[in-house]
């Protein structure tokens, strides 16, 4: 058990028969009444985000999540196959369970698979990934490096707004939390 006073971003807890990750939290001490903790939680099974308020000092269960390093192998219809780097054990995840993450996944990429008591909860991507531009409009002479952006499609099908100087074939660093352009690789 863990006190809600010890909440921190990224902590995984068990509440209402669900596994939740703390996205954001705020300790509130009103002038009148008892203190409480306002939190924003993501359900690791469904991906739903919920705001929940706890009384100060309230205890919740801490969920022990195991992160296993696995390599993304290939798509098999609607299923995606991952292989454990140590035991060579393979698991399959449905495309619907990793819909957002598929925008950044390419074959042979290493990711962390979140496991809870043998149940696969999902994928934890690295903070940024390098993806190759497959389609974008050519930059026009006279466009400035800081004066605007254009859409570019990368090898996974994700569309990203990039500066005008980016061309087809360039490898870009993409932020996986919001899908934004960071830099050229």
UniProtKB/TrEMBL annotation:
NCBIfam families in the record, alphabetically? efp, PRK00529.1
Instruction: Show where the Elongation factor P C-terminal domain sits.
Output: 129-184
Instruction: Give the species.
Output: Rossellomorea pakistanensis
User: Hey, which family's this protein in?
Assistant: Belongs to the elongation factor P family.
What domain of life does the native source organism fall in?
A: Bacteria
User: Where does this polypeptide localize?
Assistant: Cytoplasm
Q: What name has this protein been given in UniProt?
A: Elongation factor P
The keyword Chaperone is annotated on this UniProt entry? no
Question: Would the keyword ATP-binding turn up in this protein's UniProt record?
Answer: no
Q: What does this protein do?
A: Involved in peptide bond synthesis. Stimulates efficient translation and peptide-bond synthesis on native or reconstituted 70S ribosomes in vitro. Probably functions indirectly by altering the affinity of the ribosome for aminoacyl-tRNA, thus increasing their reactivity as acceptors for peptidyl transferase.
Its encoding gene is what?
Answer: efp
Its pathway?
Protein biosynthesis; polypeptide chain elongation
Keywords annotated in UniProt: Cytoplasm, Elongation factor, Protein biosynthesis
């Amino acid at each position: 058990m863990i006190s809600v006073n010890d909440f921190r971003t990224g902590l995984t807890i068990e509440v209402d028969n669900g596994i939740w990750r703390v996205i954001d939290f705020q300790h509130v001490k009103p002038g009148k009444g008892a203190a409480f903790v306002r939190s924003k939680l993501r359900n690791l099974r469904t991906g739903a985000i919920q705001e929940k308020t706890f009384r100060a000092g309230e205890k919740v269960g801490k969920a022990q999540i195991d992160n296993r390093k696995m390599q993304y192998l290939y798509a098999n219809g609607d299923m995606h196959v991952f292989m454990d780097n140590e035991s060579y054990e393979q698991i399959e995840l449905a495309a619907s369970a990793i819909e957002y993450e598929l925008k950044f996944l390419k074959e042979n990429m290493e990711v962390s698979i979140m496991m809870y008591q043998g149940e696969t909860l999902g994928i934890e991507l690295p903070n940024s990934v390098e993806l190759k531009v497959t389609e974008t409009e050519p930059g026009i002479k006279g466009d400035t490096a800081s004066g605007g952006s254009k859409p570019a499609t990368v090898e996974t099908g994700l569309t990203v707004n990039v500066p005008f100087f980016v061309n087809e074939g360039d490898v870009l660093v993409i932020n996986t939390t919001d899908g934004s352009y960071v830099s050229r690789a």
